[in-house]
């Protein structure tokens, strides 16, 4: 029987202070970057604007590309390469371009394409993908995304409230909040663009990290029942250690999936894969170092009556 | 052991049902042949693929209220929907989607379209055809001074000092025409130009009489068009225009020397006939005239057209499409049910598209594009290949991890994983769900997450074995105790997926759907089926004392 980290007695909880400092520092760096370096890059789905993915037959000069766009009146567009030096993404989401799309979302894209055709010739590039979002649709999608996050948070809360008694619920919620914050900080530090797909990844991460917490808490609940005399500190450590092989293995398989997506699945999916990969780390981390210490703190602050321990079974 | 029989029977039936759901079917699809994409009938697995995978165009249209509010939006949109649908049907796209969203939008999905601008034009074109007689009463010429006066009085134009200077080169237009090679009637009507120039405001200096002095026809240099257009739109100018007359721009520009001029037409406001009587339209190329669209009117339309054109012989009739004058030929004699629209410099394809939209009918309300996404067919194909590659690598990695770590039990998990893949795809095919790029990513991710159920169960079995329980009891306990955690996992992810389905756009909806299908498949494949495998194994090896896990 091949066993990884079986029967470990690592004192995980001991390091919670160090862990707390690290994670708070990470979040602060991310948020600081967001505050001082101009917020989060939002995808055109939310801001409105135009995104064009182009493949040139020969690598064009970026400064000429920019001057061509400027001459066509598309100022401040973001030009990035990906994959090779022939693949370009042009993002025009300055307010003036968004406003120009109020009368018809396709206008800016048509303008860019015409300008590039005039400058580079008819067959010099292929248009792979164009997204043109008018300001109204953008605002609606942004609102939808906010609703999606709030509602999924509310739904998760309701589920936890029903599933666990309040000590566990509160700790799990705070751990989830932590995961959202670290993921957002990560997104900012990697300069990932927040799109609907990235939001989908964040929500999936929330679900995933919640699973981790639930599994450790399930074990805590079981151990509370079994070892009534054990101090809570030891009980938490025992539970984390017991679930460790499962955590390692599940994360290995899930990471195998997200990393193959990251490496192989191409440009469009990459932000999604980044967020998912990071989410697996932060979810595991928070189960051990956020949810558990908070649970311990709550248990100390509002101790259970000893005989009541047996009743901490899942509510039906 | 009847319990086991039923379990096995369930698995066999599910596998058969999945195989049936995924059995290749004949579909019309856009495929790449000799480097070009063509529509063809092929056999393939009936998984519906989203636009981001097949390539094509997604278009959201909304009512354009910039030229006036629309009273009953929902009802107007319903009529527009019929027209758009008719046009798309004629445009010839495999499996188009045209649907109303809410009360003020139409979503159009055209898989495999490779000229999005053309398709947008066809969908969006109002195709509102009118025939109007050009003004013979010199309504504009007589009012030029007054109109310029209004512009000055309202402070829109400063008292013309520099204007004369700017206007000067354009005033030379008649000469340009005289010397030009446009083949038009020579000798500009200089008296008409002079009469227009009786004041020196912008209307007098920048609007010149068309060469040949055809009634109601003027020209404006293309560079001045926006300026003049803004003046014409000004409410005070609108109010001062002679009653019963309309001013409309031409659809094309004419080169004179090296300056482009656009026609400006003063028309009788009442159309002699509109496109509602049109029964057929088809493109044609006529030597000397270029591309044209020939149309045919129904009997009632023909009667009206004949009597009206009979009254206006020798007058000029402007053919107005979507408020732009296409051409203004002279009426030689009464016209019956047939007529034609000259396309000017536009090509045969433009004529085909115009004929198409005329046949399908005019849009009852103007529509504008609220958002548009286009994806090239090759990029979609590329996305599929990449995702499939990522999926295969993920499966291989997961299989290796499970086999190395759990040995024999790992094999059972791999069996469960194969069923998982089969069931998930079958559920997607069976419910006609659309597979998108994020959906494929969700599927690959699902492979990693699906075995979580098995990991939970196996770890639990190991613990039970450690506690000295028999293999049979350990397996039973393992499944029993892992169940609560598995249910929790699935419920919390399913809730997220449902929220995403509600608020996501097409691609993200695809992600939510794959996630949900994957969750359902996990329960059946990784829990129910793997447990059955164990039961079969236990049944064959009664009294077994060790389990490779």
Identify the notable features of this structure and list them briefly:
heterodimer, A: 316 residues, alpha+beta, Multidrug efflux transporter AcrB transmembrane fold, Alpha-Beta Plaits, 2 domains, 4-stranded antiparallel beta sheet, 4 strands, 10% strand, disordered C terminus, B: 549 residues, Gyrase A, domain 2, 3 domains, 8-stranded mixed beta sheet, 19 strands
Task: Record the SSE blueprint.
The complex is a heterodimer of chains A (about 325) and B (about 550).
Chain A: H1 16-36, H2 44-47, E1 49-56, H3 62-71, E2 78-82, E3 84-92, H4 95-100, H5 107-120, E4 125-133, H6 135-163, H7 166-189, H8 196-226, H9 232-264, H10 270-301
Helix pairs in contact in A: 1-7, 3-5, 6-7, 6-8, 7-8, 7-10, 8-9, 8-10, 9-10
Chain B: H1 2-22, E1 25-33, E2 36-44, E3 48-49, H2 51-54, E4 56-63, H3 73-91, E5 97-101, E6 105-111, H4 116-124, E7 129-133, H5 139-153, H6 162-171, H7 173-179, H8 190-196, H9 202-206, E8 207-209, E9 217-221, H10 225-233, H11 235-240, E10 245-256, E11 259-268, E12 273-274, E13 278-286, E14 290-297, H12 299-311, E15 317-321, E16 324-327, E17 338-342, H13 348-360, E18 367-375, H14 377-430, E19 434-435, H15 437-466, H16 471-503, H17 506-540
Parallel strand pairs in B: 3-19, 10-16
Antiparallel strand pairs in B: 1-2, 4-6, 4-18, 5-6, 7-12, 7-15, 8-9, 9-11, 10-11, 13-14, 14-17, 15-16
What does this protein structure show overall?
The complex is a heterodimer of chains A (316) and B (549). With 316 residues, chain A is α+β, with helices and mostly antiparallel strands. Chain A is built from 10 helices and 4 strands; from the N terminus they run ααβαββααβααααα. Chain A has 2 domains: 12-40 and 138-311, Multidrug efflux transporter AcrB transmembrane fold, CATH 1.20.1640; 49-133, Alpha-Beta Plaits (2-Layer Sandwich). Chain A is 65% helix and 10% strand. In chain A, strands 2-3-1-4 form a 4-stranded antiparallel β-sheet. The model of chain A is unreliable at 307-316 (pLDDT under 50). Chain B has 549 residues and is α+β, with helices and mostly antiparallel strands. Chain B folds into 3 domains: 2-22 and 376-540, Up-down Bundle (Multidrug efflux transporter AcrB transmembrane fold), CATH 1.20.1640; 56-125 and 363-374, Alpha-Beta Plaits; 131-362, Gyrase A, domain 2, CATH 3.30.1360.200. Chain B is built from 17 helices and 19 strands. In chain B, helix 1 (2-22) packs antiparallel against helix 14, helix 15 (437-466) runs parallel beside helix 17 (506-540) and helix 16 runs antiparallel to helix 17 (506-540). The two termini of chain B are 24 Å apart. Classes of the chains: A alpha+beta (316), B alpha+beta (549). At the A-B interface, strand 4, helix 6, helix 8, helix 9 and helix 10 of A face helix 4, strand 18, helix 14, helix 15 and helix 16 of B.
